[in-house]
Amino acid sequence: QVQLVESGGGLAKPGVSLRLSCDASGSLDGIYVMGWWRQYSGRAREKMAHVNSDGSTSLDDSIKGRFSISSDSFKKSVSLQMDNLRLEDTAVYYCYANANRPTRTYWGQGTQVTVSS
C-alpha cells in the first residue's frame, strides 16, 4: 500500500503562485510514475502533469508555461509549482502514483485551490 498526502493548497489571488507538494509513504518500490490531476466542481478529473522514474516529465498543454512538476526524491515526493494563477485554476488537485507489484494507481485525498480576487 502507498499513502499520498498533498499539501500547499489554499486561497490565492490571480497572478500569484502556489506550490503543491505530495509526500508518499508505505511500499514505494513499485512506483514508476507520480503526478497530478485536477477536478473542477461537477466534472471529471483531468490529467495535468507527471514525472517518470527516469526523471522525464510531461505537462498538459493547458498548463505549459505556467505550471511545472518536479520530484527531488522520486517515489517519496512530487511537487507542482503553479505560477500566474488564474480564476479557472480553481479546482481540487490530486496527487497520484502508478505502481506495479501489484499494478494499481494510488490517490491522495486532494487539496483545494481557490483562485479569487
- Integer-rounded radius of gyration: 14 Å
Low-confidence stretches: none
Number of strands: 11
Content-based structural category: mainly beta
- Report the portion of residues in β strands: over 45%
N- to C-terminal distance: 40 Å
Number of helices: 0
Main sheet?
A: 7 strands, mixed
Mean pLDDT: 95
Order of helices and strands: EEEEEEEEEEE
Helix % is under 10%
Shape, please? globular
What does this structure look like?
With 117 residues, this protein is mostly beta strands. Helix content is 0%, strand content 56%. The chain is built from no helices and eleven strands. The protein has strands at residues 2-7, 10-12, 18-26, 31-39, 45-52, 57-59, 67-70, 77-82, 91-99, 104-107, 111-115. Strands 2, 4, 5, 6, 9, 10 and 11 form a seven-stranded mixed β-sheet that branches. The relative contact order is 0.32. The mean pLDDT is 95.
Question: Main attributes?
Answer:
117 residues; globular
Entry summary:
The chain has 117 residues and is mostly beta strands. It is 0% helix and 56% strand. The strands form 2 sheets. Strands 2, 4, 5, 6, 9, 10 and 11 form a 7-stranded mixed β-sheet that branches.
Itemize the secondary structure elements and their pairings.
Layout: E1 2-7, E2 10-12, E3 18-26, E4 31-39, E5 45-52, E6 57-59, E7 67-70, E8 77-82, E9 91-99, E10 104-107, E11 111-115
Parallel strand pairs: 2-11
Antiparallel strand pairs: 1-3, 3-8, 4-5, 4-9, 5-6, 7-8, 9-10, 9-11
